[in-house]
Design a protein that fits this description.
With 627 residues, this protein is an alpha+beta fold. It has 19 helices and 31 strands. The structure holds zinc ion.
Length: 627
């Protein structure tokens, strides 16, 4: 089937399914964008946006400062230049810069046509990039929008560079009969709909939803790849999608009529993956689809992003819905939205027979991490604005006070999955929890495309766990200790059920704390060249050492790296005298009391003895295919 034919068929479907209910919601005239690339080699594009039926109200046009899925504040407006406004008669109007991100146009005739140029050369899931090979557009990074005009429908037409080899657009924007023109029912949907214009190689597959009907997936690749390579990748993606669908028991209906993978595997990309409602952008500079190994290397990110179709795009935290594009969005629940996705991505590759790796790793940094002493999983989630692409010019303490909510959440998912299996003798698992969240929240029919009808709160998550297990007291305790509190589940006992052994790496050995040291002048500079902070709860912290101090002597001998390393051979509980010079040259004497080395590792029990039948059955139920 040709692309154009598909568009015509889908357009027909869309008129039937979506336009009728949408028109009732539409308020005001369509906002139209025309996008041109006169000099793509110089990494800018020209946008002409027309706002109509504005009445007497001055137009406030602004750039976003946030983009769903990457929670830092981004100053997208910095890349705009040569902005100009005209009225409906084509006369130039004065523009007023009322804010760093906002322009105001008054005394218009009800129509304002803004033109601007915008620079971008950053290929990832958050920003935009233009060059002769492609336009890679994350919408908040690229398009000004009208304040208060959120409900208006949007139409965008792309004009590829003259003579370019761009053969189409990959996007979740709604198609029209013109392959370069798309629509969005409202601003939220428009800003959630990235676009890749390039010489694309596209492969499609269909999947039946257990809930009824068939869904189409489009794998659209911008890379130096053949049709056969992309077809082979699509076959692997289909296996992943089947395994994921089995968790939830249903595939959502995708508003454009299909789900699109926008895969940009160009050597100048940054590695990234970004979820959207009906699509994902995945960028990677080192993936080659020419070999089976290369295609399998692509699946980690693909599996993660595809799981977001359910978890975060439709099973969505209430504090992210609707998304506020003007500021950092803080969520209680990225430990579930990202962390559980981080757990399921590799787990479902395992179930699909596409990897042997078992997602046990995140437990270790959560067991030993200093950050857990000062922040819960909920608080780590609330820190996303500062950590996920967040930029600060001043010193920060993330090395000791932060554990990524991806890692923390994946460890909670592992602990909760094993706990539910244990508590119900294998009758239920985390899959049933996810399916319950899907049925109670994600599957509720949206009132308009891009809108989540029933987003969840932290309380909802707790109540649903209680409902699943028929034991609210258990759920309340689990949340109080492991999600809102700073305890860690008993991984040793739980992992043993599946035949994995959690054990100390250096049993019986002393531990002064894992601190960065550099040799400088007389002694050892704490924090090393980077000024890394000393972790909370470590013996070195208790002894009063931190970044900028210099250890002059250890047990009355000169402080050398080998003298420090020798402490690791001493007994836990042994006491050592340190002379430490502060930044101002004053010297203090302190006592370092060694602790047990907290480092742990997870080993499969079959490296020591054969698995028991019970362990094998537990592991098979957990890691085996559900299809
Ligand atoms: Zn994610």
């Amino acid at each position: 089937m040709t692309l154009l034919l598909r568009h015509l068929i889908l357009t027909g479907l869309l008129f039937g399914v979506w336009l009728a209910p949408l028109q009732a919601q539409t308020t005001g005239a369509e906002t139209t964008y025309a996008v041109r690339f006169p000099e793509p080699e110089h990494h800018w594009m020209e946008v002409e946006v027309t706002f109509r039926e504005l009445g007497e109200t001055p137009l406030r046009a602004r750039m976003s400062r946030a983009s769903p899925g990457r929670y830092a504040v981004h100053e997208f407006a910095k890349n705009i230049f040569s902005l100009e406004a005209r009225n409906g008669a084509g006369e130039v109007l004065p523009t007023q810069r009322v804010d760093a991100d906002e322009w105001m146009v008054a005394r218009h005739d009800g129509t304002v046509r803004l033109t601007y140029r915008i620079f971008g050369d950053h290929v990832d899931g958050t920003y935009m990039a233009v060059d002769s090979t492609h336009a890679h557009l994350n919408m908040p990074a690229a398009f000004l929008w009208g304040v208060g005009l959120d409900a208006r429908p949007i139409r965008v037409t792309f004009h590829p560079p003259a003579g370019s080899d761009w053969n189409g657009a990959a996007t979740q924007l709604l198609p029209t009969a013109d392959p370069w023109t798309f629509t969005a029912p409202n601003l939220q949907y428009f800003l959630d709909s990235p676009v890749e214009l390039a010489r694309l190689v596209v492969s499609e597959f269909q999947l039946d939803s257990p809930s009824g009907g068939s869904r189409t997936f489009r794998v659209a690749v911008h890379a130096n790849s053949s049709q056969a390579d992309v077809d082979s990748l699509a076959e692997l993606v289909e296996r992943v999608a089947r395994e994921q669908t089995a968790v939830f028991g249903a595939l959502p209906a995708f508003e454009p009529g299909y789900y699109t993978f926008l895969l940009d595997y160009v050597p100048w990309a940054d590695g990234d993956g970004m979820e959207h409602r009906n699509s994902t952008v995945i960028t990677n500079p080192s993936i080659s689809l020419a070999t089976d190994g290369g295609r399998r290397a692509a699946l980690d990110t693909i599996s993660h992003e595809l799981f977001h179709v359910w978890n975060v795009e439709r099973i969505r935290p209430a504090d992210l819905e609707p998304f506020d594009f003007t500021r950092g969005n803080v969520s209680c629940c990225l430990w579930l939205a990202e962390g559980f996705t981080q757990y399921y991505g590799p787990l479902l590759l395992h179930r699909a027979g596409l990897t042997n790796a078992v997602p046990l790793g995140p437990a270790i940094p959560v067991i030993t991490g200093s950050g857990r002493r000062v922040r819960s999983a909920v608080e780590m989630s609330q820190h996303a604005t500062f950590s996920d692409a967040g930029i600060s010019n001043d010193a920060h303490d993330r090395s000791r006070s932060f554990i990524s909510y991806y890692t923390f959440g994946a460890a909670i998912a592992l602990g909760l999955d094993l706990t539910i299996r244990e508590q119900t003798s294998g009758r239920l698992s985390l899959d049933d929890y996810m399916r319950r969240l899907w049925q109670g929240y994600g599957a509720v029919a949206p009132p308009a495309p891009g809108v989540v009808a029933r987003p969840y709160t932290l309380t909802d998550l707790r109540v649903e766990l209680g409902g699943l297990l028929g034991n609210q007291a258990f759920a309340d305790d689990f949340f109080a200790r492991f999600i809102e509190g700073r305890d860690v589940v008993d991984y040793g006992r739980l992992l043993a059920l599946a035949g994995y052994h959690l054990e100390p790496v250096r049993p019986g050995r002393g531990w002064p704390g894992d601190i960065a040291l550099s040799e400088g002048g007389e002694g050892l500079v704490v924090g090393g060249q980077a000024g890394t902070l000393v972790a909370f709860g470590s013996p070195a912290y208790a002894a009063g050492l931190d970044s900028g101090d210099r250890i002059v002597s250890i047990d009355n001998a000169p402080a050398t790296r080998s003298a420090w390393e020798a402490l690791r051979q001493a007994a836990p509980g042994s006491r050592h005298t340190l002379v430490v010079e502060r930044r101002d040259g004053r010297r203090v004497t302190t006592t370092l009391t060694l602790a047990d080395d907290p480092a742990v590792r997870i080993v499969p029990i079959e490296s020591r003895r054969p698995l028991t039948d019970t362990e094998r059955a537990f592991r098979e139920a957990w890691l085996g295919s559900r299809r």
